[in-house]
Amino acid sequence: MHASSSLLTFAVAAAIAAGCSAAPASSSGPEGSSDPAAAAADASASAAIDRVLASAWSEKGIKPSGDVDDATFLRRATIDIAGRIPTSAEVRAFLDDTAADKRARAVDRLLAGPEHDRHMARTWESILLGNEVKNRVVDRAALRNWLERKFTANAAWDSIVREIVTAEGLTSLGGARQPGAAMIDDPERAGEEAVEGISGPANYFVRFAKSPQDLAGTTSRAFLGVQIQCAQCHDHKTEAWKQSDFRSFASAMSRVAIQPVDRTKGQMNVFEVKDSRRTPRRLMRDDELKAIAEAEPRALDGTSFDDAENVREALGTWMTSRQNPWFSRAIANRVWAEMFGAGLVEPVDDLRPNNPAVVPEALDLLAEGFEASGYDLDYLYRTIANTSAYARAVEGGKESPRAALFSKSALRPLTSDVLLDSLFVATDLEKILEDRAPAKADRLKAGLRRKLRFTFEEDTESNGDSYDGTLQQALFSMNGGLPIAATSVAPSTVLESLVKKSDDEAIAELWLRTFSRLPTPAEIDEAKAFLAKPHEAGGDAADAPAERRGKRGKGKGKGKAAKLQGAGALPPAAMRSTAKNDRERGYEDLFWALLNASELHFRR
User: Fold this and answer.
1) CA distances from 310 to 1, 127, 307 (A)
2) pLDDT, tens digit, for every residue of 530-562?
3) How far apart are CA 568 and CA 477, in angstroms?
4) Rounded distance, CA 154 to CA 478, Å?
């Protein structure tokens, strides 16, 4: 089996062309919510944002790009809302739908699905804990599962934030853990947060137990969009923040006692987090910590909590109040950045007066509507996705979408989580794992995600503008064989059934699975020509040539990519191809090439 370089070149070129093309789109009608009044309000908000953006474009003499076609819109919305590419069945159904409001209904369907809640939970897990916690102290799964339950219940954002800021309870069930196993998608941790006394968000305080400065800075940036940490060592030179402001805010956040309950070697540590009226002893280690401990607990606007019965509770109430000038704007700007690749304010966590939004009226409208919705996070996603600005096509040129006031879109690479979930969608990899290695399936999935996330240490504040191909290379250079097994003609695989279809049907299905669109006539012709060529035979994944093993060759990986070797190890028999002829081997190489193409690895 041998994937030719010409096909890879063809696939990459097709990806670039598809990503930068603008095709007519069907118009998006009224939002299809089950609540007609809410639907009308959301549609009105989207239209109002479009009007202020159009006014800004007109004032600056900016000509917006055209709309994307339906397939591109569905792929874009599915990636942004559900954290994966759409299935081929979803694409076919969407393209066959002739209703004027099908885009709005697709957005509603995605928002109602469990993958949206899971995607948001992973996003906020990374924002709150970072991606570098590799010990047994912080139970990431407990926090992530708690977040997912809150998002599934459509809990209001203000209540979620208050619960995080005031968290108390045990951090984990404990128990024996393999190194890092409880960090990402550990199947044994599912439902842990539902156990009485276990508090997922309590892990947030344990994460920063030794650094109340970082706790204060992360809390302020994540929930208020304010970089108060700039005043940690001295008064801010250009802003109003004083060192005393930082210390007072940190003092309010750190009024918490953290006691170890179980620190058995080789086990997941368990801590109990409780409110503390007194200064915790851990804050008396050095002069800086003592200064924080002795500072009067105050909010960023100067509101004192010195007489509060519960300081963290008072802080949470202040943070989420409608009088707070930052709370709604911070989350509105952050979700805008998720959907557009950049915030109306950049960096997303820097809402200072000297750093205004590029279109201030748009941020005002979004934040005000969010408050009126009762702090409904889905309101933000729905309102943004239903704007015509969200459906703008990618255009070339050096000017970023933000610099162009969001009059155009831009290619941006998928994160490791989204790329891995998209790989699962394209290849039915989950079904392969469950069929071929049922005892290892959950652990294999968790291991893949954990190794990818921690190996590449993605910046949780990055807008994703940069891409060096390292993640793509690593995914497909894993000698463990999961990607190879997924692209083989073998039981349970996509190709097992596809090779029985006509070339036109099979090629169309592969394009739908990988690129979320139908192939062009030229692509069909080139794919058929490729399939007609001789293809090298191989017994199983371990014998596959370099193009399907990874360019480094077996056992020769170096650096970060090498750490992934074996992340998805399957038994040799489970990876064996049953391809019987050149045509079937050609489909293996074609599928492999499409999975390597940049069109799969970028959001367009």
Assistant:
1) 67, 26, 9
2) 999 998 875 444 344 344 444 333 333 334 333
3) 11
4) 38
Segment 309-318, tens digit of pLDDT: 999 999 999 9
In angstroms, the first-to-last Cα distance of the chain is: 31
Q: Could you tell me how far CA 264 lies from the centroid of its own chain?
A: 34
**Residue 240, C-beta contacts closer than 8 angstroms, at least 6 positions apart:** none
H-type helices in 83-199, by residue range? 88-96, 102-112, 114-129, 140-152, 157-165
C-alpha 204/C-alpha 373 separation (Å) is: 28
Q: If you search the block for the tokens 């003499």, which residue do you land on? A: 61
Contact 77, 382 (CB under 8 A): no
Residue 559 burial (CB < 10 Å; 0-12/13-18/19+)? exposed
Report residue 318 as tokens.
């202040």
Positions in the chain whose pLDDT score sits under 70? 1-42, 132-135, 176-196, 229-239, 279, 436-437, 451-483, 538-576
* CA separation for the pair 90, 78 (Å, rounded): 10
Place of tokens 């557009």: 340
Cα distances (angstroms) measured from residue 17 to each of 147, 268, 455, 525, 604? 39, 49, 31, 17, 11
Please state, in angstroms and rounded to a whole number, the distance separating the CA atoms of residues 31 and 98: 16
Local structure of 413: helix, strand or coil: strand
Evaluate the omega torsion of the peptide bond into residue 347 and state whether it is cis, within 30 degrees of 0.
yes
Give the β-pairing of 256-262 and 602-603. Answer: unpaired
Q: Sign of the C-alpha dihedral, residues 416, 71, 20, 7?
A: positive
Residue 581 burial class via C-beta count within 10 angstroms: exposed 0-12, middle 13-18, buried 19 and up: exposed
Q: How many CA atoms lie within 13 A of 220 on its CB side?
A: 30
CA dihedral for 363, 368, 374, 380, sign (positive or negative):
negative
The DSSP secondary structure of 399-411, one letter per residue, reads: --TTTTTTSSB--
Nearest to 246 by CA among 292, 305, 312: 292
Cβ–Cβ contacts within 10 Å for residue 181, how many? 20
Q: What are phi and psi of 362, to 5 degrees?
A: -65, -45
pLDDT at 265: 76
pLDDT in tens, 20-29: 333 333 333 3
Q: Confirm if 81 and 107 have CB atoms less than 8 A apart.
A: yes
Helix 88-96 crosses helix 70-82 at what angle (to 10 degrees)? 130
Amino acid at 480: G
- List C-alpha distances in Å: 545 to 2, 536, 597: 6, 9, 18
CA distance 388 to 28: 8
Q: Could you write out the DSSP letters of every residue in 18-57?
A: HHH-----PPP-S---SSHHHHHHHHHHHHHHHHHHHHHH
